[in-house]
Amino acid sequence: MLNDQSPAGTGSAPAGPARGRAALGAAAIAAIAGIALAAVAGCSSGSSTPAASSSPPATPSATQAATTAPSAAATTPVSTPSPTPTARASSAPAAVPTLGQLAGDFAHGTGFGQVKPAKIFNGGDPTGLVTHVVWSSWGGARATATGTSDYVGPNQSVAQGTEETATVVAFNLGTCDGKLMYQAVEWYFPQHGQAFNPGQYEDICTGTYVGQ
């Protein structure tokens, strides 16, 4: 017996379960497609390049600038004052002459070999002694002084001599045995008419008498 709702009479496919399965399949496909699109969208958003910031780069702070900038002391050349030229050493002072030297007849005398001696003695009798000698000049061609010595007049013996003021002259300035000295000396008594006689003196370089 045929059911009035059977499709046999119409020739069409049954509409119940088949149409339900078709609807479920379409929903599943749509869900899968939605998941795939979401995954693609996620990957695209993760790989996108972030937009460049429009803010200007931060300016280094004053502390950073002071740290990184070269210091003035390091970049500015230090000016070292040139040493003050040492004053050129002055030339050696000129040698000061002595009154002859102890030699010959005067080897045991006094004052020879000295500068401006206050006492001169040739080692002989009292007439060869001059004391309290005060020099008024020294170092030039001649040196002069005054002192006290025994004066023996004409026809008098040495024992009769008296102490009087005498004028002393040292001369013949030059080098003797490598030393600068007055090589001659003489004394006389101007108050008795005597005068300096360069031909009569004591050679105090060699230690001899000249012209006597």
Structure description:
- 20% of the residues lie in helices and 24% in strands.
- The chain is globular.
- It starts with 15 loop residues before the first helix and ends with a strand.
- The chain has 212 residues and is an alpha+beta fold.
- Strands 1, 2, 3, 4, 5, 6, 7 and 8 form an eight-stranded mixed β-sheet that branches.
- 17% of the residues are buried.
- The chain has a domain at 98-210.
- Mean pLDDT is 75; it is low at 1-30, 35-58 and 65-74.
The percent range for strand residues is: 15-25%
- How do the helices and strands follow one another from N- to C-terminus? HHHEEEEEEEE
In total, the number of strands is: 8
* Helical percentage: 10-25%
Radius of gyration based on Cα positions = 68 Å
Given the C-alpha coordinates, what overall shape results?
A: globular
Largest sheet: 8 strands, mixed
Structural class: alpha+beta
Query: First CA to last CA: what distance?
Result: 204 Å
Mean of all residue-level pLDDT scores: 75
Low-pLDDT windows of residues: 1-30, 35-58, 65-74
Sequence-ordered SSE layout with sheet pairings:
Blueprint: H1 16-47, H2 62-68, H3 72-75, E1 98-99, E2 120-121, E3 129-135, E4 143-151, E5 162-176, E6 179-188, E7 201-203, E8 208-210
Parallel strand pairs: 1-6
Antiparallel strand pairs: 2-3, 3-4, 4-5, 5-6, 6-7, 7-8
Describe this structure in a few short sentences.
The chain is α+β, with helices and mostly antiparallel strands and 212 residues long. It is 20% helix and 24% strand.
